[in-house]
Specification:
The complex is a heterodimer. Chain A contains 11 helices and 8 strands. Chain A has helices at residues 18-23, 35-40, 42-58, 74-79, 82-98, 109-118, 131-140, 173-180, 217-227, 238-250, 262-270, and strands at residues 30-33, 62-63, 103-106, 127-130, 156-159, 185-186, 232-235, 258-261. Chain B is built from 19 helices and no strands. In chain B, 39% of the residues are buried. The radius of gyration of chain B is 28 Å and the shape is elongated. Classes of the chains: A alpha/beta, B mainly alpha. Chains A and B meet through helix 2, helix 3, helix 4, helix 5 and helix 6 of A and helix 9, helix 13, helix 17, helix 18 and helix 19 of B.
């Protein structure tokens, strides 16, 4: 796979693949694990692109697996299909170990949790970082400055904790610190951090109709988010992204309330 | 008369011991039904968690007011037990306030501490009954939570009422004792000058000053007997009740899961087959997996069932969890599925697991120790609709004041349903086949996976 370079744009972003970099006898700083949603979901592809632009802008030497990437197996495992999960995991580990990957950054908390916590037992040992933590590091080092783009001053943003980032791995502050760099007005919902309410997608719920009940979980959560008066709901997970966006539509507020991933907001702030 | 009392007392103590021993044996046998799992690693960290979460009740203070109230009952329970020692020795030896002459300077102080705690316990129990029956705290209402119908609500109420009665007996017993001492009657009078009035019971003395000497001694003896018999009954009752947490809460917390909450337990028996299917030789597999395939370095035990259908497929820690559950419902009120009206309740998962164990125990007692009925946890107690509603968000796991993990049980039941019975919702089966064939949970061509990069320079 060749580098996907464009030649005639003013700003040029490139997405090198691991295969290319290794063929050139080089080694990337990080492997960006895109994940299935980041690769195929039209909405989350925007997040992947925003993050790639930030990486390009900062000058991080990264690579993606491209067509060699495959589902981590997380939804299969949570649904109870351990065989399928392990087939995916063992194959992915063969690819990752084959490239001698050491450091992985991903924008998906489910991929993050699975590769970080569940791959070691199957022979995959890597330093795995969620993009919120990675962005926080870049901001703290002064390598990412939110300037030159859209101003967020006076905007009300609320952050929805992803279960697999928060409770599962205790990453609560990183996404909030990233948002703090926007100089916006960060408003919290009542149920946050360890008490955060799920969007309703986890445990493979995303891939089936909910069981009978009196309300959808995402509607419950979006109502709470709207209650803060925020005009932006920030998320850090592809499945939260879909669930919150659908919830906002359900409440007929899609014209006034937007759902963005934290990396999109940073990219907007940088004019990328 | 005195000897008869001593004789009856010894019999009561022995009977209590016999019943408790019988129950402890049954319960420990039930827990050992579970599959083995080594949770002995990191004793230092485990001890620390036990000190903070069990002894220190750290998580109870998430709601500080409730935390303080529960702490009063907890501290009262532990500290008042010191007084039980004297009461039992008095009962066996036929003495009266055995310790008073030996520790005269601190004896009134100790009893005063017990009395303050007893009063605190009494007051908190009244508040807790009010929360259940008057202000109707949501998570404690059977009308909202079907798992609380019948026995669980009764169990909770019995205990609170019993504690109020026990504390009342303790305080009025001290009050009558003081009145009898003032009147200089029998061995009560001997403590004049040694034992003063106590901090709480002195205010109860006016209730009894109108009593004749005989009636007073009658009340004092009755209160003393009812109090200690009540405690003995409580000790046996606890083993049938949700209040077993007062004992099992500690080991339950000590053996907490130390892994990150998002990590699902691996199935080494599956890993072996997967490596074979992918054509990895054992050497390659060993190379890919330096840990030896298992957290604790054990070889995978003989393959029984994949996942869990019944309690013996679960691990022993799941079963200790079930016996330790106090049915407080913090898990259920944090559960997104339950909040939005789904049938799933993490508390019910724990209660069903214990009910299953209790039913198995009853079978042993009734039909011999090898008896096995044809019921199973999944199907007869927990339904597929419940486990399929779980979002695996871990809110229940975080909410539990004693680190019980209902999610672990739910996921093991799901594994059984999918791997042994090949039964999953149709859209899950579609997702499985997409992952298998397209390397993604959706039906996209794997060769299109990198197409997003074409848009990276589009505005």
């Amino acid at each position: 796979m060749k580098n996907k370079n464009m030649t005639q744009e003013i700003k040029q972003y490139s997405v090198p693949t691991m295969a290319d970099i290794v063929a050139a006898g080089d080694e990337p700083e990080i492997l960006f694990w895109v994940g299935c949603a980041g690769s195929f979901d039209d909405r989350y592809k925007r997040v992947t692109i925003a993050f790639v632009r930030i990486l390009n802008h900062v000058g991080i030497k990264f690579a993606v697996l491209g067509p060699e990437e495959a589902c981590t197996g997380d939804p299969a495992r949570r649904a109870g299909n351990e065989f399928l999960f392990q087939m995916q995991a063992v194959s992915n580990i063969q690819v990752l170990n084959g490239y001698n990957v050491k450091k992985i950054v991903t924008a998906c908390p489910h991929c993050f949790n699975t590769i970080k916590n569940e791959y070691p037992e199957l022979g995959g040992n890597y330093e795995v970082i969620h993009h919120s933590t990675f962005l926080q590091g870049l901001i703290n080092e002064g390598r990412v400055k939110v300037e030159g783009g859209q101003s967020f001053k006076g905007k009300k943003i609320t952050f929805h904790d992803s279960c697999y980032l928060g409770r599962a791995n205790k990453v609560y502050e990183a996404p909030r610190e990233v948002l703090a760099a926007l100089d916006a007005d960060l408003v919290e919902m009542k149920r946050v951090k360890a008490n955060g309410l799920c969007c309703g997608a986890g445990g493979a719920q995303y891939f089936k109709e909910p069981e009978p009940g009196n309300k959808d979980v995402n509607v419950e959560r979006v109502q709470e988010a709207l209650g803060t008066g925020a005009d932006t709901i920030a998320v850090a997970c592809p499945f939260c992204m879909t669930m919150m966006s659908d919830g906002v539509k359900n409440q007929n507020r899609e014209d006034t309330v937007k759902v963005y991933d934290i990396s999109e907001l940073i990219a907007q702030g940088q004019g990328l | 008369m005195a000897y008869l009392e001593q004789f009856l007392f010894v019999i009561a103590v022995a009977a209590t011991g016999w019943f408790i021993t019988k129950r402890v044996k049954l319960i420990s046998r039930a827990i050992r039904l579970g599959r083995p799992e080594d949770r002995s690693a990191n004793p230092g960290e485990r001890l620390k968690i036990m000190l903070q979460v069990a002894f220190g009740q750290k998580k109870m203070f998430d709601n500080p007011l409730v935390g303080v109230m529960h702490f009063v009952i907890y501290a009262g329970f532990i500290i008042i037990n010191l007084e039980i020692l004297e009461i039992i020795l008095d009962g066996v030896l036929g003495t009266h306030r055995l310790f008073a002459p030996y520790i005269t300077p601190i004896y009134p102080f100790l009893i005063n501490v017990f009395e303050v705690l007893a009063f605190g316990v009494l007051a908190v129990c009244v508040v807790f009954l009010t929360r259940r029956w008057v202000t109707r705290v949501q998570r404690l209402q059977a009308s909202r939570h079907r798992e609380l119908k019948e026995w669980p609500v009764k169990d909770a109420t019995y205990i609170l009422v019993a504690e109020i009665i026990l504390m009342f007996l303790f305080l009025t017993w001290n009050a009558t004792d003081s009145v009898l001492r003032d009147r200089g009657i029998g061995h009560y009078g001997e403590l004049q000058g040694i034992v003063p009035d106590f901090v709480i019971s002195q205010f109860l003395k006016p209730l009894f000053t109108g009593f004749g000497d005989g009636a007073l001694v009658g009340y004092e003896r009755t209160a003393w007997w009812l109090h200690i018999l009540g405690i003995m009954t409580f000790a046996v009752y606890v083993t049938y009740s949700k209040h077993l947490h007062i004992a099992l809460g500690f080991p339950n917390v000590y053996f907490s899961d130390l892994k990150p909450k998002g990590e699902m337990a691996n199935m080494p028996e599956v890993t072996k087959e997967v490596q074979l299917m992918l054509g990895l030789t054992p050497e390659q597999a060993a190379e890919a997996d330096p840990s030896g395939g298992n957290d604790n370095g054990q070889q995978p035990e003989s393959i029984g069932r994949f996942g869990a259908k019944d309690v013996e497929d679960l691990r022993w820690i799941n079963l200790i969890n079930a016996y330790s559950c106090t049915e407080c419902g913090r898990c259920t009120s944090a559960c997104p599925a339950n909040i939005t009206g789904k049938k799933l309740s993490p508390r019910k998962i724990m209660m069903d697991t214990r009910d299953r164990l209790e039913d198995i125990q009853k079978g042993w007692v009734k039909n011999g120790p090898d008896h096995k009925d044809d019921k199973s946890l999944l199907g007869d107690y927990i339904t597929v609709e419940e486990i399929n509603a779980c979002t695996t968000c871990q809110a229940c796991v975080v909410a539990c004041p004693i680190n019980i993990n209902p999610l672990d049980i739910i996921l093991q039941l799901r594994r059984y349903k999918v791997m042994e019975e090949s039964q999953a919702p149709g859209s899950w089966n579609a997702m499985f086949s997409n992952i298998e064939n397209n390397m993604a949970p959706w039906k996209f061509s794997p060769s299109d996976r990198f197409n997003w990069a074409d848009q990276v320079n589009e505005k």
